[in-house]
Amino acid sequence: MFSNYPQRVYNWLLGLVFPIRCLGCGKFDNYVCRGCLGAIIVKKNFECIGCKRNTHLGQTCYLCAKTNSLDQLLIVADYKNSLVEKIIKFLKYKFIPDLEHPLSILMKRYLKWLTLNKKFNVFEANPLLVPIPLHMKRLNWRGFDQSDLLAKNISDTFQMETANDVIKRTINTVPQVNVKERKERLKNLNGVFKILNKEKIIGREILLIDDVCTTGATLNECAKILKANGASKVVALVIARG
C-alpha cells in the first residue's frame, strides 16, 4: 500500500499534542461523535445527473440520457451540510482514512432508508461494486483511495462482490474540482480510464462508488467505458453532490 508517510507521521505527532476531537461539536475521542453523526439527515430527494431536475429514484431523464451514460444517481447526503463537507475534505486533504467510517455509516443509513421507505433495494440485481479509481500518483500522495475504502465497507456489510481491478485511471488529470467549465471537465477526462477485466463486467449491473459528484463527468466517463465493454446498467452511489 502506498502511503504519504510524512503526512501520516505529522498526523500521529499532532494527535499526541492535540487529541482527536469531533469535527462537529469539538468533543474529544472521535472525529465525528455519535450525536453529530446522528444529526445528519440523509438526502430524500433525487435528481438527474444531467439537468439536476427531480426524477424517480435519481434515474437519468430521457433527454439527458442522450448525452449521459450513467443510468441512475443516488446521493446519500447534502453537501451543503457543513459537517458532511468537512468530513469529506478532512478525509481527502488532511489524509485521515478513519473518516471513511462515519461516511460508510451514512451510506448504510441511506441504503436502509431506500429499502424501507422507497421500497428500492439497490442490491436486488446483484450488482458489482466498483470504486472510482485514483491514479497511482494521487494514491501515493494520499496514501489511500477513499472510494475503495467506502466500497469495501459496503461490500463487507452487505456481502456484495466488489472489484477495484476493473477500471484503471491511466492519466493523472487535474482534480475535477479545480476545473470550472463543464466542457473542460469532459475534455479533462477524455481517454482517462481503461478497462482491465472485461470478463467481470459483461452482462453485470455495476454500482459505482465515489465520495463526491460535481458535474457528473467522472461518473459518466466510467459508465460509458463500462457499458462499451459489456455492463448492462451503471448506477452511482455517492456521499454528496458538490
Describe this structure in words.
There is one protein chain. The protein is of the alpha/beta class. It has one domain (39-241): Rossmann fold. 37% of the residues lie in helices and 13% in strands. It contains eight helices and six strands, in the order ααβααβααβαββαβ. The protein has helices at 5-17, 34-39, 82-93, 100-117, 136-142, 146-158, 182-189, 217-228; strands at residues 72-75, 128-131, 167-169, 193-195, 205-213, 233-241. The strands form two sheets. It has a four-stranded parallel beta sheet with strand order 1-6-5-2, with helices on both faces. β5, α8 (217-228) and β6 form a beta-alpha-beta unit. α4 (100-117) packs across α6 (146-158). The protein is globular. The two termini are 29 Å apart. The mean pLDDT is 90.
